[in-house]
């Protein structure tokens, strides 16, 4: 599947669907933060997500229950790769360095990353 980047509103709704697994428009609306968008706005965004291939539905008469057609992990990989390519010359080292220099990684996380690297070395 050829993924496209989501708008902020689309991503917010996808986060709800990924968390809940499936939902009706009213269910999505209930968990969105204040100020809540109009019901029709949420319905329109979900239909756009369906057109983009991110969402599918099950029809119950005139009512539809929506569920993700794209896994959160797949979209996370897409967004991360796009971020790395667009801002860090496709370098994981440059991206990690950026987060470390801006203190967005604390010592505990750094230790966990080092353990992950050591495990990766053992597998190779």
Query: Strand share of the residues?
Result: 5-15%
Spans of at least 5 consecutive residues whose pLDDT stays below 50 are none
Strand order of the largest sheet: 1-2
Distance between the termini: 30 Å
Cα shape: elongated
What is the SS-derived class? mainly alpha
Radius of gyration: 19 Å
* Extended strand count: 2
Overall residue-averaged pLDDT value = 92
Give the number of helices: 6
Order of helices and strands: HHHEEHHH
Major β-sheet, in short?
2 strands, antiparallel
- Helix fraction? 55-70%
Description:
The protein has 6 helices and 2 strands; from the N terminus they run αααββααα. By secondary structure, the protein is mainly alpha-helical. The chain has a two-stranded antiparallel ribbon. The longest helix has 17 residues, at about 105-124. The two termini are about 30 Å apart.
Which tags fit this structure?
single chain; 124 residues; mainly alpha; two-stranded antiparallel ribbon; 2 strands; 61% helix
Compose a concise summary of this entry.
The chain has 124 residues and is mainly α. α1 packs across α3 and α2 crosses α3.
Indicate the topology:
Blueprint: H1 8-20, H2 25-31, H3 39-51, E1 55-60, E2 63-68, H4 72-87, H5 92-101, H6 107-123
Antiparallel strand pairs: 1-2
């Amino acid at each position: 599947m050829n993924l496209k980047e989501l708008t902020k509103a689309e991503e917010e709704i996808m986060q709800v669907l990924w968390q809940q697994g499936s939902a009706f428009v009213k269910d999505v609306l209930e968990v969105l933060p204040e100020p809540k968008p109009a019901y029709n706005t949420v319905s329109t965004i979900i239909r756009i997500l369906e057109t983009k291939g991110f969402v599918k539905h099950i029809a119950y008469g005139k009512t539809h229950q929506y569920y993700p057609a794209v896994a959160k992990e797949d979209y996370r990989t897409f967004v991360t790769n796009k971020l790395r390519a667009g801002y860090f010359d496709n370098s994981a080292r440059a991206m990690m360095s950026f987060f470390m220099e801006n203190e967005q990684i604390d010592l505990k996380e750094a230790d966990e990353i080092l353990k992950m690297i050591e495990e990766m070395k053992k597998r190779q």
